[in-house]
Amino acid sequence: SSPPHHTTAVPSRHLPPLPSGQRKQQLRAEPTMLPFLLSLLLLTGAAAGVQGHDDAAARRTMEEFAGFPASDDGEGGRASPLRVDSESLQRQQIDELASFSDSPAPSVTRVLYSDKDVQARRYIKGIMKQLGLSVREDAVGNIFGRWVGSEAELGAVATGSHVDAIPFSGKYDGVVGVLGALEAISVLQRSGFQPKRSLEVIMFTSEEPTRFGISCLGSRLMAGSEELVRSLKRTVDNHNVSFVDAADSAGYKIHPDDLHNVFLNQDAYFAFIELHIEQGPILEKEGIPIGIVTAIAAPASIKVEFEGNGGHAGAVLMPASRNDAGLAAAELALAVEKYVLESGSIDTVGTVGYSAATSRSYQ
């Protein structure tokens, strides 16, 4: 999926190990987390600093941004350098969250409002509370954990992602943006920082379209989509369970009119930044540990149905008598590929994601 709010990407070598014999891949937290941490520091402003040669420039930049000197005061003297607990992040959090799955490891399946989704939500809220964040949920289950800043009246800086997972997916998609954000707050707290602006971690509901065919459900509601509100009032899944009933099964007692309460005021946040896996090979191929997204994918899809004429495989001859729908569909798929390749665009993708053929026989 391609969420509408990615700002930071991590190379695809951090994707989870796959059962197909591909090489084992590990999340390397510190090289990718440090730019993310510094981005949060610059966005929120800081009342404390870090020590060390490499951190001196960051300290000066933060002092300029915050408007006052970084303090060395605090328990135990100077604040500690920024250090990510990568072992805990990987083994105790990412791997543990991956265990809440309806498919066997190393894959993850966590569908909206399922029992595993509810367990994952409880797990994320538990970490937020351990960090002393103020935790709340809205009507559809978007989860917010806020670290209140020294100037709480200012618009907050938000970060986060999602933890729902399409069937048989990896364990890092979305999860890095949520657990990575919580670890970033933990690092800043351990280092003695106090933000000027409040810092809020958001776990968005239903980034993936798995259950109801609607992607970015929680974030689109937060953005004020009236069209989505109307759609959710009549949406059902493949088992004819309505969105409202599915939410109720997960503990969210929704009245259709409550969906408007998810909408945010335009000045609710000062900025949003997200840490996310790249989901592609470019950064890995170039040997670049982290990149800043300058544009996002804008996916659009259409469904095309081809109808042909059935006939005996041997007795109905070509070309005058045969009209095979499958061949026509294949020609369209090739035409889509040809058009994109000849467009000259380096970042346009055209693909046929799903095809199915059925036959009818007549006596």
UniProtKB/TrEMBL annotation:
* Gene Ontology biological-process entries: purine nucleobase metabolic process
Q: Which UniProt keywords apply?
A: Hydrolase, Manganese, Metal-binding, Purine metabolism
Domain of life according to the entry:
Eukaryota
**Which cofactor does the UniProt annotation name?**
Mn(2+)
> What Gene Ontology terms describe what this protein does at the molecular function level?
hydrolase activity, acting on carbon-nitrogen (but not peptide) bonds, in linear amidines; metal ion binding
Which segments carry the region annotation Disordered?
1-27
UniProt entry tagged with the keyword Hydrolase: yes
- Report the Pfam families cross-referenced here: Peptidase_M20
What function does the entry list? Involved in the catabolism of purine nucleotides. The sequential activity of AAH, UGLYAH and UAH allows a complete purine breakdown without the intermediate generation of urea.
Subunit and interaction comment? Homodimer.
Mind telling me what this protein is named? Peptidase M20 dimerisation domain-containing protein
Where does this protein come from, organism-wise?
Aegilops tauschii subsp. strangulata (Goatgrass)
Phylogenetic placement of the source organism: Eukaryota, Viridiplantae, Streptophyta, Embryophyta, Tracheophyta
